[in-house]
Amino acid sequence: xxxxxxxxxxxxxxxxxxxxxxxxxxxxxxxxxxxxxxxxxxxxxxxxxxxxxxxxxxxxxxxxxxxxxxxxxxxxxxxxxxxxxxxxxxxxxxxxxxxxxxxxxxxxxxxxxxxxxxxxxxxxxxxxxxxxxxxxxxxxxxxxxxxxxxxxxxxxxxxxxxxxxxxxxxxxxxxxxxxxxxxxxxxxxxxxxxxxxxxxxxxxxxxxxxxxxxxxxxxxxxxxxxxxxxxxxxxxxxxxxxxxxxxxxxxxxxxxxxxxxxxxxxxxxxxxxxxxxxxxxxxxxxxxxxxxxxxxxxxxxxxxxxxxxxxxxxxxxxxxxxxxxxxxxxxxxxxxxxxxxxxxxxxxxxxxxxxxxxxxxxxxxxxxxxxxxxxxxxxxxxxxxxxxxxxxxxxxxxxxxxxxxxxxxxxxxxxxxxxxxxxxxxxxxxxxxxxxxxxxxxxxxxxxxxxxxxxxxxxxxxxxxxxxxxxxxxxxxxxxxxxxxxxxxxxxxxxxxxxxxxxxxxxxxxxxxxxxxxxxxxxxxxxxxxxxxxxxxxxxxxxxxxxxxxxxxxxxxxxxxxxxxxxxxxxxxxxxxxxxxxxxxxxxxxxxxxxxxxxxxxxxxxxxxxxxxxxxxxxxxxxxxxxxxxxxxxxxxxxxxxxxxxxxxxxxxxxxxxxxxxxxxxxxxxxxxxxxxxxxxxxxxxxxxxxxxxxxxxxxxxxxxxxxxxxxxxxxxxxxxxxxxxxxxxxxxxxxxxxxxxxxxxxxxxxxxxxxxxxxxxxxxxxxxxxxxxxxxxxxxxxxxxxxxxxxxxxxxxxxxxxxxxxxxxxxxxxxxxx
Length: 819
Known about the structure:
Helix content is 15%, strand content 38%. By secondary structure, it is mainly beta. Helix 6 crosses helix 7 (331-338).
């Protein structure tokens, strides 16, 4: 009886704690490090048409006729004849102009923009162009926005009186209707001939800046509340082929007709440099972010300036600092003022090189030629003239989880880059706990889930990143800066996936990763508070598919064309006939099926085809012959397949045709099961593959020799709850972040000590949640809010307890006003 009374007393004393399955204890007096004032920022690079056709608001594609040897994206209207000419040009940096010969009234030219021009009813568009005529053309041209079908969407008439000298014309067009696929035309009222150059059309811009940014895309950046902006790259800084493909800032300032532009060889298209050095600095200022400029150390992809001859590159860096920070009495400070900004931009951070300190300092095979010797020359020159500018150094950018500064030169901050899978990030919650506080600081300048992210970026990816970000917050005395990469992708020309902001001519959306970045940066205190937690989640009931123990075998490829033949499935010594290829299930990819072979002809990543035969046995053998035809990798023999998110495969010639490994995907999260073996697949050669499965043990053979052995995992490979807390003592707000990466769910309770909820405030308790039914859920342009932040249910419990719910696959931010 006494025992029961004691137990009853405990039940009455701790009702919410016993009902809750996620219990978080926060003692406001137990403090950790101060949060860096530059903790969350952004990294901008011109990739995936992030600039022209993206953030840069210019609507005319190939405005200076420099993109190709033909006038691409320009078309003749009526009987007009158009051609590029190279004589008597506008200036020394323009290499082509467009000669237009008009046969009759109504002839002219048409530009399609960047996959359409977004006409918005009532909006005013600013037009400018340069023109000349060898025949002294006089007439009226009509500048018009029109639909693809030719419907007039707004126009302006301009009277031309041309000579052999170039003359600039300006006009405005007010759109009369909405059309995201509009085109621009310039037509004349009489026959004749003239030449055009630098034809530009701007919509309203972010903060109404001249030569400015597309408002909806810039606002997505502003909504992230970045404290710094790293620019202009990335590989964009280095360029490729020769130093002219690098970002040379002096060529990117001034009027647009004085900007030559350059080939963005790294990402496969030409850039106008309309977003130039000045615009980057102005954008950073408009976002309230400190600028962080990445400078070239005389290295480009495929070559370099000798490390003892980099004086010009150092001077270019110092001149950039003078442009940003110098008084108007200096050469470049005066130039900045002439370009519309007399006050300094206060550039505080310089990164010396981009991914230039890897492994091969002697042969530059990985863009690392004598990086320490290059770095110290820049460092000394910068510190001598600008001692307060912080210098950021490079470390290894790939192939290690432990990048390091491997020389004795002084460095304030090093830039670490990580592109991994969701589980890798979640497993590194404590990565920075044991970093040496007496050494340099860390800037995680590029990080993102780049495998197992779904199609364009799913919730699983965002949650893995969120856990990693919480770990960085907890160690903000070491990780003083961080930024996701990359930001933008025009969905019409994706060169990299995933990217956190996706757009077309008229629409924009954020991936779940974008919303994690936005939420975390807008909900952070000034000091870390020690946080303890326990969890015990309720797991959902298994589906009928999950109850079914049967699995399948099949084939897969990754960006590669391969052929497969002679499959065999052996169960209990019996060979199962798999030759009815017509019944094999094509999961994704372009599969051609014949009587003897199954061939993948596409470049999907991955492409899968599955045998219909069910396997209920614990022990079986799968054999197949495979041959690479073309592409970047090899081929896979799949086993244990249940659905596109749950399977295993023997990956032969993976990772750029460099190694073999066994990988398992659980709920869309694919991880290697063992240490891979170096191997390269030769094209047009048949390989004999064999996979023996014995329960959770797997043995993989190639050409009759054992290659790999490992054990598969059961249950979710990606689960757990993580919590962290920061506090703003001035605002008296506590921010509690709780991330649940798996399919379990629970009630939650926060138990506070040495502080109390200020229940007298109307907004004393707030809960923001990013969650969805499945971790594989994504957003799209058509459904941009499938995974989107929403207010959650939160209330005060007994004493200093706060009650809330913890959904599966969720990032939760509790904002608690305290006293």
